[in-house]
Amino acid sequence: METKGIGSTEQPHLVSLVLQSKKALQHGEQLCSRAQSQYNASAQETIEVLALDAKVRWIAEAIVEQLKLAASVAKCIEEKRAALNKQVKSWDVSRTKHTDSLENILESLGGQVVPPDFHETSADSSLFGSQHSGDEEDEIISNQRRPGSILLDKGKGKGKSNNAEERKKREKADRSRWKTLRDFVDDRAIEEILETVENDRNTLEDILNKTADYPSSLRNTIASLRESLPTPPQIPILTQMQDILIAEDTVIASMAEKLESLAGHYDGMAAALRDSEAGEVFGDEDLENMNRDTEELPIIMSELDESANEIKVYLKRLADSHKAAQQDVDHLSRVLSDLDELGDIMGEMLATQNTVEFQCEEALTSLQQHLETLDHLHERYVLYQTAFNKLVLEIARRRQYKEAAENIVHGMMSQLQIMSEEEAQVRKHFNAEYGGHLPEDICLCIGNEPTRWDVSPFSGDAREILPEMAPDLIVEARERIGGNLDIAVGPESL
């Protein structure tokens, strides 16, 4: 410094520099003070964010555990339904087996014809009772109710009788018009049984459908709640908070250094002004340095502004994190409420599933009884067909017996007739040669004819009439029975 007197222009210039320095210092102090306050607020926000984050993680973990329990409930219901469906499918397989067996025996009955003589005779001798075909019954009733029918003369009646006999002969020859064993089965009763089985099966299906959507509904709800849970950040919140605080510390330290620089500059300028007022004269180089330092103040202020903005940004980030964490806590509270409601719903689902199991057991028991009914029907019609085949063979056997007995009777009658004629000739010759020489009152029986014999059914018994059967029907019956009964077939049986 030079110690010359103060020029007229130096002092105002120094005053201006001092004022600029003071203004910069004051503005810097304001920025640093505000930044410090925001820094303190950031610390508080950090504590609250960490607390909320811990609360979010704790609630989320509890919700995940509850969702696992809900998933186990869904699996339990699904397993119970699977067990019921397995029982139902097993019953369906048995039902198919029984119905197929019943249909097979019914089709077999429908393929086996019944000779007309088996059911068109009188009620007393018919193997199936008095049964007329629908056309025959209508014709009989129509003839009975036709006005004047009782006034027809015998000739016309005889003509109609011959026509009826010819028609019956044609019908007997045409097997396509014969009845089958199926015609003597009560199809309506079978249809009613099958319809009852189908209705009960549909009822069982309705019972099962009550809980059909329970597992999927629970899983969808669980998935929705799980997806709604806050996603953990890639960088842990604690690490983020530490990074922000470290960054803020660095910025605050930098601002403190700059504020100290501003304070030092102001102190130097104030001292220069006091020295100038005391009479000290500054050289050009000193003034240039003062001017240069003062010109750097805007740069420092700009840096302080940027640092202050950084602190503000960090605080905003913390505030946003605080707000997001609070929103997560609020959302999780709603999820907990939804879980409580879901717990009530699952309780109702389990109760309904238990009811469904009980109802299914009852329905399956009833359906099992229906299968026993179908089995009894099948057995009944198998025995019915077997009995008919046995009947055909029995009729054939009786015809053999009848023919054998009639042959014996016919042979005996023929032999007796011959013997009687021969005996009559012998007696005639005896009486002619010796009868005239004997007194009339001696042995009156000598003139009697030989006794004539007639072999007839036992008193009160009618001659047995058996239905006519073609030989192939006997062969068919024997094949269905699967035996080799000693029954001749055809004319050679005679």
Instruction: Indicate the proportion of strand residues.
Output: under 5%
Strand order of the largest sheet: 1-2
- Total strands: 2
Biggest β-sheet description: 2 strands, antiparallel
Low-confidence stretches: 1-10, 122-157, 488-494
Rg calc: 62 Å
Q: What would you call the shape?
A: rod-shaped
Q: SSE order, as H and E?
A: HEHHEHHHHHH
Structural class: mainly alpha
Q: Could you tell me how far the N terminus lies from the C terminus, measured between alpha carbons in angstroms? A: 169 Å
Mean pLDDT across all amino acids:
81
Percent helix, as a range, is over 70%
Q: Given the structure, what is the number of helices?
A: 9
Can you walk through the features of this model?
- The chain has about 500 residues and is mainly α.
- About 75% of the residues lie in helices and about 0% in strands.
- The chain has nine helices and two strands, in the order H-E-H-H-E-H-H-H-H-H-H.
- The protein has helices spanning about 10-110, 135-145, 155-175, 185-210, 215-230, 235-275, 285-295, 295-435, 470-480; strands spanning about 115, 180.
- A two-stranded antiparallel ribbon has the order 1-2.
- Helix 1 (about 10-110) runs antiparallel to helix 6 and helix 1 (about 10-110) runs parallel beside helix 8.
- The chain starts with 9 loop residues before the first helix and ends in a 13-residue tail after the last helix.
